Amino acid sequence: MPLYLGVDGGQSSTTALISDETGRVLGRGVGGPCNHVGKAEGRARFQSAMEQCLNGAAAQAGIERQSLAFRAVCMGFSGGAEDKETYLRELVAAERYLITTDAWIALTGATGGAPGLMTISGTGSIALGRNAAGDTQRVGGWGYIFGDEGSGFDITRQALRSALRQEEGWGPETALHAKLLEACYAPDANTLLHWFYTDAWPRDRVASLARLVDEAAREGDACSLEILHNAAQQLATMASVVREILFTPGEPAAVSYVGGVFGSEILRNRYRMLVELETGNRFAAPLFGPAEGALIEALREDGISVNLTVLSTTEP
Fold first, then answer.
1. Has residue 15 been placed in a domain?
2. In terms of domains, do 139 and 242 share one?
3. Could you give the strand order of the β-sheet that contains 116-121, starting from the edge strand earlier in sequence?
4. pLDDT-based confidence at 43, cuts 50/70/90?
5. Residue bearing the bigger pLDDT, 130 or 44
6. Counting Cβ atoms within 10 Å, is residue 253 exposed (0-12), middle (13-18) or buried (19+)?
7. Over the Cα atoms of the chain, what is R_g?
8. Residue 104 is part of which domain span?
9. Contact residues for 55 (Cβ-Cβ < 8 A; gap 6+)
């Protein structure tokens, strides 16, 4: 029986899916993070994560790990794919390999492989799309210094700016000042500013405080609501640029989203309203997750287009 493998390798975990040629998922396995392989310890973690998820998927599928060989595999990785390809070919036997980024398999999963576009907004942000001809385009993803507009990090940055302005007396009062200080056990916003420059506050930790902005906005804080609306505008603008490049005016295109920032109903609804202003856009929650997207791409590598029967789907 021909087997296919899709892998989503992220900063927090790695997921592997094994399917047959119909797209029926036979097994799912989960391992640790595998985003860095530059140093020896990074390579060891990468190999361990891959073995964990492959062993788990093989066990659920009732297949001996040692006998696993695939017709085609697709693997998408956070932090780039080039430095991982050599190690992957040693770990996984396959006739065809497609090694790409986690963003592209997220797009395939979100739209179910249909032509469309999506915005990813978590710690960072990026928009990308693919049309019916297979042309692709990305916008953003420049990192926290030069870009990542509308991301969790950017939302927290705007929140701290508002708190600093209030503290210095040249900005309006906002509930964000008290919320940030309480959540971080900081004596004042200026101290918190300096903490955010230290290694104790990596970008993902800073970005996690974006939830406080959503909380304050739901409680009626005008400043927080403005921050979320501006973030949604930036994310929708990136999606609009991708659409303009890849699709003709009025051409149907699925539009979706991925990332923790979209857990804010306020931001998500604003984003939806903005993207639906463009004729042809069909807004929808992600159909599948990135691992399923990788599996769709693996099947495509062998000329197969199917609707996946998955063990679980992505929640909105």
1. yes
2. yes
3. 136-140, 125-130, 116-121, 253-258, 281-283
4. confident
5. 130
6. buried
7. 21
8. 4-112+287-301
9. 29, 65
**199 and 78, same structural domain?**
no
Structure confidence by residue, pLDDT tens digits, 174-224: 999 999 999 999 999 999 999 999 999 998 899 999 999 999 999 999 999
The predicted pLDDT at position 241 comes to 96
Tokens of 115: 């032509």
Cβ distance 251 to 115 under 8 Å? no
CA distance 130 to 123: 23
Give the global pTM: 0.84
Tell me, yes or no, whether 106 and 151 share the same domain.
no
Q: Are residues 266 and 182 in the same domain?
A: yes
The residue-averaged pLDDT of 286-299 equals 92
What is the domain-level CATH number for residue 75?
3.30.420.40
Confidence of residue 49 (pLDDT cuts 50, 70, 90): confident
Question: Which string of DSSP letters, residue by residue, matches 290-301?
Answer: HHHHHHHHHHHH
Number of folded domains in the chain?
A: 2
| C-alpha distances in Å from residue 130, one per residue of 176, 203, 245 | 38, 29, 10
Looking at the structure, tell me whether residues 257 and 202 fall in a common domain: yes
Strand 116-121 relative to strand 4-9: parallel, antiparallel, unpaired? unpaired
